[in-house]
Each structure stands twice: as C-alpha cells, then as structure tokens.
Amino acid sequence: MTTLFRCIFGPKLRRVHRGADGSQGFYYQPRKVEKHSDSILGWAYILWSVSYYTSPLLLFYCYRKGYFAMSKIIPATSYASVLLLVLTGVACLRGMGRWTNPEYMQFLTILEETKRNNTAENKKKLAAYSFDFEHWPKDFSWNEVSSQKDHQLAKMSKAGVPLLKPEPKYRGTMDNFLGQILRIPCQIIGYLMAISFGRRMLYPGSVSLLQKAIMPMLLQGQARLMEEHGGKRAKLIACDGNQIDTVFVDRRQEKTEHGKKLVICCEGNAGFYEVGCVTTPLEAGYSVLGWNHPGFAGSTGVPFPQNEANAMDVVVQYAIHSLNFQIEDIIVYAWSIGGFTATWATMTYPEISALVLDASFDDLVPLALKVMPESCRGLVTRTVRDYLNLNNADQLCKYQGPVLLIRRTKDEIITTTVPEDIMSNRGNDLLLKLLQFRYPKVMADEGIRVVRECLSASNPLQETALYSRYEVDDDWCTSVLQSYKSEHGEVFPWTVGEDMTSEGRRQLAIFLAHKYMKNFDATHCTPLPSHEFTLPWSL
User: Fold this and answer.
1) Which of 348, 372, 346, 233 lies closest to 298, judged by CA?
2) Which of 299, 336, 353, 360 is catalytic?
3) β-strand 129-131 against 13-16: which pairing, if any?
4) Which residue of 174, 250, 460, 508 could cross-link 179, Cys pair, CB 3.0 to 4.6 Å?
C-alpha cells in the first residue's frame, strides 16, 4: 500500500534521457489506465486555471444570475463535492496505472533512494529522468556559503532585510499624515493591479496555461541540453524559500579559453533556459549556467523584483561555492527583461568580470505607460515604482566593470513609438545614462548631442559616415583614456575631458558610444547568433 500511495502522489515522468553508454533517449509511454486518467486530470487543471483567471467575470455573472442565493449554493456545493470525489478516484486509477508499469517503478525506486541518500551516484542515476521538478532533491541552498561577504548577505536575509533596496522616498507636500491617508486607496488599487494582471503582463512566462501549451518545446530543449551537451540540472533554494530550476553545462574539460569562463544567462519575460538565450554562449564555446525565473517551469514562486533578486543571488552563490568558478571568471549575459537581474548581480557582486545586455531597457515606467491608457498615467507610474520597479539604469551605474549593450535595430518591444523609430528604443537611454555617469565631462551638452546622432545610425554604413564626418581617431581616444586611467585610477566617474576642446570631447563621446553599444539588425525575439556574442570592450 505504501508503494501504491507513492505512485498516486508521485511526480509525472516525462522522459528518460540518453545514457552515457549510448542508449537512445525516449519519452515515457504511460499505459492506457495512466494515460487516460492523466488526461482527465490535465483537462480538469486547465478548466480550473481558466476559471481562476476569469474569476472576476464569473463572479459578476453568477451575481447577476442570482446564483449566490442559499437555495442554489447548497446544490452547487454538493456537485463540487461529487466532482472532487470523482477526481480523487481518477488520481487513484492513475496511481494504479503507474504501479503496473515497470519503467515508472524503476524511476520511483531511484527517486526514493536518492531522497534517503542524496549521494553523487544516486543523483547521477536520477539525472537520467525528466519529471516534475518539485520532487527533485535539493542541490544547493542560499545559506551554504563560505565567504564573509556571503555570510553577511545570509544574515541580512535571515533577519528579514531585503536584498533589493527600496526606492528612496523624497519629501514633498503630500508626505504628512493626511497625505499618507489620502494615498491609501491608490496604494491598494496599485497593489491589486500588480498582483493580478500587472505581474502576468510583465512576466507572461509565469502563466501556467502558457507553460502547459509549450511543454513539448521545453522538454525538447531540456533533452538537447542534457543529452547533447551533458547538462547538469540542479535545484537551488533561495533565501525566500523559492526553488530555482537551473542547468549547468561545463566546458572546462575542453581546456579552451572560452570554456574556463562561466556565462550566467538571465532570460526574458517569456524565456526559459530550455529554449532561451543559453544557446548563444553555449554555441560560442563558453561554460553556461541557465536558470528560470520564479514561477517559470520548475522554479517556484512569483517573479516580483525582490524574488528575482533573491533567485539571482543564490544562482551566483551556486556558481562560486558549488561549481567552483572564480568570480573574476564569471560573465553575466541577459536578454530583454533579464537585464534587471543581470544589473542587480553586477551591482551586488562588482568583481564579476563582464556584463552583456541584449535588447534591454533603462526603466520599466516608459514601457508600461506605452501599453496603458493615458488616463491611468499617475496610477501606473506609482504601481510600477512601488511593486514592479525594474530600474536597470540605476543598478547598471553602480557597476564598475566592462559593459556591452546590444541594440536590436528593428526592436518592436522596447520602443515607445513604432519599431521603425530607432530613437525611441529604450536601449538608447540605457547607454546615455551609463555614459553620463561614467564620463560626465565628455557627456556635456555637446557630447549628448553627438551620441544621439550616433544612435540614429541604424546600419554600418551610416556609422562609418558619422565616424568619418567627425574624424574620430581611435588611437588618440584610446591613448587619452589610458593616460587618464594610469594617473587617476579605474573608479568611475571619470573627469576626463574636463580640459579638452569641444572637438576632442565630441570624438571621445562618439568613440565611447561605439565601444559600449553595437547594433544587431533584427527584431526583439530573434535569437542572437553565437558570432555576435562578444565580450565588452575594456582598456
């Protein structure tokens, strides 16, 4: 009976991966009883999810029809109890189907043995199976740290101090007690907006129905990582208790320069490591660590900014303490909304060697205002600032290392007007804010003007023409920057350009814009080819 009980409540087995002995991988084939009962439970889950997402409309409809009368609630409760009893019976039938399947029983035996004795040998056997990740044993926890800095972060988290610092609140006319009382209704509405449709609009990949629809694609991508690239899946426990689903591909044994470097990949708002930007550095020969946002695929929780920061923190700690990479050999690569966790990581761990941001933006507020009615402008701004504040530019300016921004010239997502208007791409604002912080004297009024002129160039021909028109001398610009660095050190902001002619500042501004940003002629969701993945420029 114990075994049958485990079969009833056990994980759904999806695939048996290709073995080291050359045996072919295959998708698990349930027998008829398990297959049909699992299908019934799957449809029940879909109907429940649809009901959940449409519950406000359903409740309003039931109220208009008078279904909340006691005479109708009691029969409805009886029907619900019968339905629950039927689904329980179906779940028991599924368990019996699993019980009679030798493949599932072999998997269940390995899983139970691994839970009892989580050794490397048992974990290796378990890694041959793809199944519901919530049943995967823990591999690493946020409090398994050794350095003093990480111990401090661990103590902060344990004491309830958030890793993500809140936005500073400025004093104003409404900061008195009466003003705070008057703001309460707006705060309540904003909170409800954020936890309902706001979070799901921002991170559509966290919607369970979408995940169910693309599950075959995710399984195929996962099989490719595991079977073709020798990927290692791991469960990390963040300081908020969320379980983070990760995959690691180790290239250090290839003894190449790229293989010694680890690229931590931060996916977009509907991206998963199974089918996301992990492919780009992987094909370029780097060791790669991919992870899924909280609430995506095997990761638990919801992708609010604080949870995102907590997840990124445990991923970096895992790379250092468990995978044994030096922090100076870690590169962070992000696509789109992944720029938030990437800039948070480099801000928090400034020793990270480089940061590459692809199709990312400076601030969420302008993009949120783009898709919301103008009449809700104040409420949308307040809601984003309070609950969904992805302030990438502010975090980026706290990082001192090399940075490369990749701008999509046909980006239709992070532009605030139309895709053809490249000047409305929020990647431009990210570059301008970074340059203004690092080189404030160069980026005076004249510097900002010529950089904006550079940003209007959408192809190499236009870039070359601009370079020629301003007679930019790369060797001279490099020597000026190197000379300043040798005299004043590396810490930004620099005062280079303070005693320079307007022509010299213009040259430096164009040179720096060219070094910090490169164009990629594609739309937002086009995968970045491996040859376009290059490390940032540095002196």
Assistant:
1) 233
2) 336
3) antiparallel
4) 174
